[in-house]
Amino acid sequence: MSAAVAAVPAGVPEVGRFRPAKLPAVAGRTLASGLSVLAVRKPGVPLVQARMMLPAPRPAAGDADRARQLVLAPTLLSGTKRRGSVEVAEALQRIGASVGFSLDSEDLRLQGSTLAPSLEEFLTLVGEMLAEPAFPGDEVAVERARTAHEVELRRAEPAVVARAALKRRLFGAHPYAGGLPDPAVVADVGGPDLRRYFRGRVRARGGILVLVGDLRPARALDVAEAALGGWSGAAGAAALPPLPPVAPGPILLVDRPGAAQSNLRIAGPALTRLDPGLPALQLATMIFGGYFSSRLVENIRERHGYTYSPRSWIEHQPLGSLLNVSADVGTAVTAPALLEIRYELGRMATVPVGQDELDAARRYLIGTTALSTQTQSGLADYLLALSVAGVGLDYLRDLPRRLQRVTVAHVAAAAAEHLAPARLPTVVLGDAAAVRPGLETLDTVEDGPHP
């Protein structure tokens, strides 16, 4: 081969035609307790992934409820009426299983896995932890001390403080505002508090259990019914109030004296998975700041060097969805960075995107969605999220086709409705004395309390 021929670079192959992803069938059953169980066979490795959501609404927004919420989830592993924490750990280890719990303002979540032959033992143990939690005083004392210390540390993290300030700006006194409780309140949580909280809040009815892995679906449903069908949990629980309307208002500035950087957070209402317009908004969000080739990254990272990893994304929650924009920038460039973010939002909302931008974002979103469901764990996560939203795997089957049908005009309409900067509340956490003058050239600035 001559040197001239060898020097010619190989051409980049054209992008192939879209191929619909093959997704497995889902077997389902609703137990007498009201718990819905979904089982999916996905062999490959001899494991079963388990995901569970149990309704546990927390209508109150006070520190006491938030403190119990933080301590309760990990202490579910502290033992049952039949065995202590060491015995629980040994049982999980013996069957090659792991399990963890988390609790928020709406529900209790379980994430776990087990060796496929041990599914029955695993679900029986989970059923025991739910039906007979002990919350022993010595274990609770250790966990509340650890949690109180963790809360104290996290309350000093800028990203945590900025997130809490944004949620309070959006949701006011609603439980979705969340926030971290006073560590002193966490330190007062006791076993009786947790027992009352669990018995009065957590229930099976309306809950969902997802099992994905090397299993026989019909057999898995039978095992789940035997292990969990007898536990109903709380007889009833108060529902969360509807979300308050979001009003943009002035920039909320939360002071962090001497901070070397500012945390910029922007958010507003988004479409849910049930809304037919969501694919267009997903693509608009992707083009704006959803991946490395987005406009936001190209502007404030590549062109201006203001930040390392700005991004935008849609966050789905049962009561509503949120469009989020996040960037952490140097104190000296706080106002210029916010100006560029608003510029890009405004450009999305007023000027149609290019067809090449749309096609690139579409390929990326279709591809990453397909990849995220190829593992047992990824499919289990996705199936639970879809089921909580009231849709099933058919949603995933149809999503690529729905994305393919989105046009430049659809993206323009979605962006005009949801990405217009004048409609999105803005929170800035930073050194107020240093950043206020610049921010005031962009908008009215209001002082915000430290969450």
Question: Would you give an account of this structure?
Answer:
The N and C termini lie far apart (68 Å). This protein has 451 residues and is an alpha+beta fold. It has 2 domains: 27-228, Metalloenzyme, LuxS/M16 peptidase-like (Cytochrome Bc1 Complex, Chain A, domain 1, 2-Layer Sandwich), CATH 3.30.830.10; 251-448, Cytochrome Bc1 Complex, Chain A, domain 1. Helix 10 packs across helix 16 (408-418). Helices cover 45% and strands 18% of the residues. The longest helix is centred in the N-terminal third of the chain and has 18 residues, at 137-154.
Q: Largest sheet at a glance?
A: 6 strands, mixed
Number of separate helices: 17
Provide the number of structural domains: 2
- The largest beta-sheet arranges its strands as 1-2-6-3-5-4
What is the fold-level CATH name, i.e. the topology of the largest domain? Cytochrome Bc1 Complex, Chain A, domain 1
> What ranges have pLDDT less than 50 throughout 5 or more consecutive residues?
none
Seen as an oligomer or otherwise, the chain set is single chain
CATH superfamily of the largest domain: Metalloenzyme, LuxS/M16 peptidase-like
Helix content: 40-55%
| Beta-strand segment tally | 12
Shape: globular
> Which percent range describes the beta-strand content?
15-25%
